[in-house]
Amino acid sequence: MSWDPRQLRVWRLGIAAVVAFDLVRMAVDISHLAVPSLLPPVEDLTYGLALSHALVWSVCLAGVVALVHHARAPGRMAGAVVALAATALLFRLDTYVRGEPNESLAHASAVLWGWLGGTAIARLGRWPAAARERLAATGAAALLGATYVAAGAIKLVNSGLAWAQPIRIQMLAVQYLDHPHPSWLTPLRQLAVDAPALAGTIAVATLALELGGGLYFVGPRVRAILGTGLLAMHLGIWALTGILFPSVMALLLVLSFPWHRWLAPPRTPEPPEPAPAPRVWLGPAVCALAAALVLLIPQGRVDRPAVHPFYVAFLEGIQHIDRPVTERLRDGEGRLTEHLGPLHAGQHLDGGWTIAHLRVLSPSAAINVERDGATVQLQLVPLPDEGLPADAWRLGGFYLRYERSAVPTERFQAAMEQLRALLEGAAGADPDQSVRHWAQ
Amino acid sequence: MRWLHRLTALSFILLYLAIAFHLEDAVFPTRRFDMFSQPWGHSYGLQLVRLPGGEVVHPTSLDRWDCPTDPATVTPPGPGTPNDPCAGFHVNTGTERTVLEWVRSHPAGEGPPLVPVEFFRRVYRFPEGGGAPTTVDCPIMTCRAGTRTP
């Protein structure tokens, strides 16, 4: 893995610049969106922090200064640590004021984490100074690739190989056909709607590029090929939906191509690869230990939308564990349906929510409601043996529950109340029979 | 040396995935990037307008409206019967709201004479096994509309 010192400098500066850009746009977002009357109450300090513009901009400034230090001091870690702490805090506040996470803010920070991790491993392993930044760059490339592998893997986890079918892209394109208004991109979107062969090609290429992102660290040629493909994919996403990922596109542009060669001819021959470093086992061993510790944390400890991780799916595959219906619905099992008793896909609900899709796993059902891209899953499931959970709403031998998510409960409370009323009104005298009939 | 870099990179990727998937996006910046990862339905309704000559345009291309009922009351039709082609389809709430707000906030006022237009939803239905979609136009209401400049 050959690294030119000039290339490492381009990477260091490029990553720092993109993370600084993310810090500033988060601070701008928070300053504009943090309006006291619109913020839902929370039990921690988030509410107060989000409203303090001085604090938000101070954190942003501290992060930017730390990034300047990072960019000017190769092999040092303090600047990256402070910058990442700043991005983590502002991301939390940004998610709070938006009501949902802006995921396009995560790529650059992940890359900086990779750079920091590589530096830390090299320092712990007492690597020669010349070799440290090379491992940092490898870490950065690996984590940029990891963000795409995650995006590809979650599609397989949530939809299986069916995600690669044309209908996925056709449905995506039709939603954005005239969104928010007709534009010069409308004919292109119409083409993706009407041409299943084109839509299928886009779907397969998307999955292949995202999962192939895991090879981004392998070498300059692979990086250039994958980088070009991923940039094309982002342009395609923009053409079909209007959604742009500026930070990660800038990163792909900086990290995928040999700018150091194109912009300036080599003045000196590239330095030889350093000799094998001591403690070569340290990086993988630290990662393995960290991963083991992460996997020991019970999943219920985190308050986020739950998706079944594939390692558990693998264990179930070989052990035939009988999973609870709530988990199976959460993981997308069951059959999509247009109707569920008084409910139907596309139905408007109070609070601006809409029923995005309905799924039945007889005799249970999942009701996915969405608003402005945020999704919450409500489930109509049989009462558990241990009795009705606290604050749950009962309908005969069933009850309505919701999957915890990043969306605060207050935001969809009105929609949930409306669903309760609709279901109760349609259930009649024998709610058990009604629900079983609806969820056939 | 190369193998060591690759092994380290691979371990970084696996650690990232373990955190992102097991802790379910709780630790920034590990994310699963699950936007558009969920399966969607097979149908979608799009609001459009048909002019007297048969030409179909987007509602926002007309900026003078006179409708018999308040556009704010327009909602997708109910579940209907299973074979009803104008029932049970997806819509984008935000887009629908934007269009209806456009119609509501652009009253007829002064200007050239209005013409009768058909305000409708074009419902796309995609076959299960793949292929081009079928469409059906489902009326919302008949309005009178036009533009401020002829």
The biggest beta sheet of chain B, please? Answer: 5 strands, antiparallel
When the domains of chain A are counted, the total is 2
Order of helices and strands of chain B: HEEEHEE
Largest sheet of chain A: 6 strands, antiparallel
Q: Mean of the pLDDT scores of chain A?
A: 82
The general outline of chain B is: elongated
SS elements, strand count of chain B: 5
Question: Which segments of chain B are poorly predicted (pLDDT under 50) over 5 or more consecutive residues?
Answer: none
Radius of gyration of chain B: 24 Å
- How large is the share of residues in beta strands of chain A? 5-15%
- Which range does the strand content of chain B fall in? 15-25%
Mean pLDDT of chain B, to the nearest integer, reads: 85
Q: Secondary-structure element sequence of chain A?
A: HHHHHHHHHHHHHHHEEEEEEEEHH
Instruction: Please report the distance between the alpha carbons of the first and last residues of chain B.
Output: 73 Å
Q: How are the SSEs ordered, and which strands pair?
A:
The complex is a heterodimer of chains A (440) and B (150).
Chain A: H1 5-33, H2 46-51, H3 53-72, H4 78-98, H5 106-124, H6 129-159, H7 166-175, H8 186-194, H9 196-212, H10 220-241, H11 246-256, H12 259-263, H13 282-296, H14 310-319, H15 325-330, E1 335-337, E2 339-340, E3 343-344, E4 354-361, E5 364-371, E6 374-382, E7 393-395, E8 398-402, H16 409-427, H17 431-438
Antiparallel strand pairs in A: 1-4, 2-3, 4-5, 5-6, 6-8, 7-8
Chain B: H1 2-22, E1 43-50, E2 56-57, E3 64-66, H2 93-104, E4 115-125, E5 134-146
Antiparallel strand pairs in B: 1-2, 1-4, 3-5, 4-5
Question: What features would you describe in this structure?
Answer:
- The complex is a heterodimer of chains A (440) and B (150).
- With 440 residues, chain A is α+β, with helices and mostly antiparallel strands.
- Helix content of chain A is 59%, strand content 9%.
- Chain A has helices at 5-33, 46-51, 53-72, 78-98, 106-124, 129-159, 166-175, 186-194, 196-212, 220-241, 246-256, 259-263, 282-296, 310-319, 325-330, 409-427, 431-438, and strands at residues 335-337, 339-340, 343-344, 354-361, 364-371, 374-382, 393-395, 398-402.
- Chain A starts with a helix and ends with a helix.
- Chain B has 150 residues and is α+β, with helices and mostly antiparallel strands.
- Chain B has two helices and five strands, in the order H-E-E-E-H-E-E.
- Chain B has helices at 2-22, 93-104; strands at residues 43-50, 56-57, 64-66, 115-125, 134-146.
- At the A-B interface, helix 4, helix 5, helix 6, helix 7 and helix 13 of A face helix 1, strand 1 and helix 2 of B.
